[in-house]
Design a protein that fits this description.
Layout (H helix, E strand, L loop, with lengths): L2 H53 L7 H23 L5 H17 L1 H16 L7 E4 L2 E8 L3 E6 L4 E5 H6 L2 E3 L5 E10 L5 H14 L12 E7 L4 E10 L3 H18 L17
Helix pairs in contact: 1-2, 6-7
Length: 279
């Protein structure tokens, strides 16, 4: 190769290098600038999101996860933006990523449902630790709320683990939300016993129990509720503080039994009269 050919080759390489630098150099500089500025914006947005979580009093166990999710999503968008600026075709990559995400989501559908349910429970707080609830066929006190499961302790000290997916989408009764509860009773006396005397005895028992509230919307109620096969039934409704519910329930049943006997009121049991006819 002579000197002229070498010069020609060198000029060609120089020209190509200048074209490549001019074409991709500015893109690279722009991509680096976007990455630096974008990283600062992402950090600022994550910090702002953290402050929003603090103001909304989000559960502490949920905050780190939500922050990490937001941070990962924003960083992923930033990476895609930077790679697109460099001229890298992202359509196929995004399609593959979406297909992989769909496959993983279908494989973990149950787990993801429980996870989503845990997030909803921690955000909207239909119950909290220490609440007495009835859900999914179980009744007990909530001892722990995890991201996938809720752990309950039953009244006989059994540990119940309930997946959050079903717990967040089904009906539930929370007995700890309201400060007052109504206790309902049904007592029966025999036919022939005085209804007025029965009401007097029941009202006296209600007045004697200081845990039973009175006045305003918490007045007690006593009335004949039905005529049964073997008894005249009285309905009794009283209001108590939530923590006194079971104490009043059990004590009232015992007091009614003992007092009815002393007052001469009969507590009937199911019976059948048989009439025999002789031809």
């Amino acid at each position: 190769m002579d000197i002229e050919e070498m010069n020609t080759t060198f000029e060609s390489i120089k020209t190509q290098t200048i074209e490549i630098v001019s074409e991709y150099g500015l893109k690279l500089v722009g991509a680096i600038a976007v990455w630096i500025i974008g990283s600062m914006i992402v950090k600022s947005m994550v910090n702002g999101f953290d402050k929003v979580l603090d103001k909304s009093k989000t559960d502490p166990s949920l905050k780190p996860f939500l922050k990490s999710i937001v941070g990962v999503l924003l960083k992923a968008l930033l990476v895609i933006t930077v790679l697109t600026m460099l001229g890298i075709e992202m359509t196929s990559f995004v399609a593959i990523l979406g297909a992989a995400g769909l496959a993983v989501g279908m494989a973990l559908s149950g787990t993801l449902q429980n996870f989503a349910g845990g997030v909803m429970i921690l955000i909207f707080k239909p119950f909290k630790i220490g609440d007495f609830i009835d859900a999914q066929g179980y009744t007990g006190v909530v001892s722990e709320i995890q991201i996938f499961n809720t752990i309950m302790k039953t009244l006989d000290n059994k540990t119940i683990i309930i997946p959050n997916g079903g717990l967040s989408t089904s009906s539930m009764t929370n007995f700890s939300v309201e400060p007052f509860r109504r206790v309902d009773f049904t007592f029966g006396v025999g036919y022939g016993d005085s209804t007025e005397k029965t009401k007097e005895v029941l009202n006296a028992l209600i007045s004697a129990d200081k845990r039973i509230l009175s006045g305003g919307d918490h007045d007690s109620f006593v009335a004949v509720s039905g005529l049964g096969d073997s008894s005249v039934d009285f309905v009794v409704r009283v209001w108590v503080k939530a923590e006194d519910y079971w104490g009043v329930f059990f004590d009232m049943n015992e007091n009614v039994y003992n007092t009815f006997n002393k007052e001469g009121l009969n507590i009937p049991y199911p019976q059948m009269d048989v009439h025999v006819h002789k031809n």
